[in-house]
Amino acid sequence: MSASQTPEYQAQQWWKTDIIDMRPGEIRYRGYPIEELIGNVGFADMVWLMTRGELPTRPQAALLETALMSAVDHGPQAPSIAIARMAMTCGGSLNNAMASAVNVLDDVHGGAGEQAVELYQSILEYQIGGHPLEIAVEEGIATWQRERTRIIPGFGHRFHPVDPRGPRLLQLVEEAAERGEVDGNFVAIAREVERQLIAMKGKPIPLNIDGATAVIYAELGFPAPLARGLFCLSRSVGILAHAWEQQCQGGRNKGPMPKGWLWPYGGPAPRPVPGRDRP
């Protein structure tokens, strides 16, 4: 029996990973010993190391941290936060509330960042193909609306005429581009998308938090699917905070509407149950 056919070898290969090497008394992430990482790198550095395989530069880590901290919360009106708080009033634990909330961060609520990165990357491909920025954005928007949805991800907001997070994040990316820390391609794309959407709609369609953090993730080279994962990681901070606050406040069986508020009913008018012998 060859070494690759032994049960021991097959068991060792069951979960093959390049992420962590662990044995009694030793833990290494991507080759780095944990005792040297502790105290020398921050949480954003570790997120980068775990997902990308290498430690980031200080400017890269700073931009990543900026994106992560900017999207931690948007209040109980956000379905994920409301679900976390409701779960706590049902007797759930913090981990139950967090899992319940993260599970709804999907295509509509939580997926716009990933979609915005995809849009930006498709526009960059048009530029690489020889189109100037304005034409590349026109093509990107048209293709997206034809093949995906009329909604352009990362732009517009239900509550904010101007999302206060967007301009500040773009400013930081542009400053990083001036220092040569990122290329600046995606921040230019986002600004042109915003300009064209305003021209198309005849009203402000501001860049929102999803579109702004997508600029950062794209500038830093994160694949689009990781943008959603990073948003889930970021929003988990707010989810945890609200779940803990609700546990401290107490309350039992709080649903989506206050006590005494009832939903509109549009079904049949009151009517008797027919007799059993009715044909």
UniProtKB/TrEMBL annotation:
<dbReference type="GO" id="GO:0008816">
    <property type="term" value="F:citryl-CoA lyase activity"/>
</dbReference>
<dbReference type="InterPro" id="IPR002020">
    <property type="entry name" value="Citrate_synthase"/>
</dbReference>
<keyword id="KW-0456">Lyase</keyword>
<comment type="similarity">
    <text>Belongs to the citrate synthase family.</text>
</comment>
<feature type="region of interest" description="Disordered">
    <location>
        <begin position="248"/>
        <end position="279"/>
    </location>
</feature>
<protein>
    <recommendedName>
        <fullName>citrate synthase (unknown stereospecificity)</fullName>
        <ecNumber>2.3.3.16</ecNumber>
    </recommendedName>
</protein>
<comment type="pathway">
    <text>Carbohydrate metabolism; tricarboxylic acid cycle; isocitrate from oxaloacetate: step 1/2.</text>
</comment>
<keyword id="KW-0808">Transferase</keyword>
<dbReference type="Pfam" id="PF00285">
    <property type="entry name" value="Citrate_synt"/>
</dbReference>
<dbReference type="InterPro" id="IPR016142">
    <property type="entry name" value="Citrate_synth-like_lrg_a-sub"/>
</dbReference>
<dbReference type="InterPro" id="IPR036969">
    <property type="entry name" value="Citrate_synthase_sf"/>
</dbReference>
<dbReference type="InterPro" id="IPR016143">
    <property type="entry name" value="Citrate_synth-like_sm_a-sub"/>
</dbReference>
